[in-house]
Every structure is written in C-alpha cells, then in structure tokens.
# Entry
Amino acid sequence: MSEKLSEIHKRTWTPFFNAILRGDKNGEVRLNDFDVQSGDTLILDEWNPNTGYTGRSIKRKVRAVFPVDFHRFHSAEEIQKYGHLYIELENPRLAEAEKLAKEWRRIGSSEVHIGSIYGVRLIRCANELEEALRGVGDEK
# Structure
C-alpha cells in the first residue's frame, strides 16, 4: 500500500522562481530535511531575501526524488571550495514535442485559414506531436 501524497511548501528565491515559471528550470536541489516522494505536490513560494515572501507560488508535481550523499563523492574541502551544480538534462522526446507544439501553434494561429495545404500540415504536426509525446517520462 502506498503512502498518502502530500502538498509541501518550500520557499525559492526570485531568480529560481522565475526560471521555473518560464519553464527553463524543472528541478530542485534541496536539503534532505523533509519527507517527499514521487507524486507529491511541491508548492514553491517566491522569496525575496530583502523583503520576504512575495505572494507568488508555483505548484508542480514531483516526478522523482533522488537522495544524494555529496560527501560520498567529494571531500568536505572540495565541496566547500567548489560547491555543487544542478545540471538538468534535456529529454529528447520532450524537446521534439515542444518543437512540434510550437510549429503547431504558429500554423494554427495565423496560417491555417489561408488554404488547405496548411490544414494538412497542421494535421501532420498534430500526429507528430502525439507520436513524440508517447512515452515521454517513461525512460528509466
């Protein structure tokens, strides 16, 4: 039996909040001081260190959680000197789907009424988008 899913509030500074809002950042590096599991909802409350909470929030479903012991891989001195990076890897299927969706919006919003050739392209884009989205996030 699975555990009950939770909504978890965490604060995030404005530059990171905006990157998530734009879709440029889709992950978090966090201190492992709270319980979180796949399927939970993470509510990120925008935080300005000079003025406090801004009142803006973003809700995102937690896709996966990977606990990491940074000291297992690096000494305390190396961690202090260099810190850590958050590196987000592109999902090629999702990137293709986003490209197709952008093309679909472009054609559908301004050109589809011009003639049937654009309608055919729109249907092709829809089919390609559907195909590209099949299995997105299923990589193990």
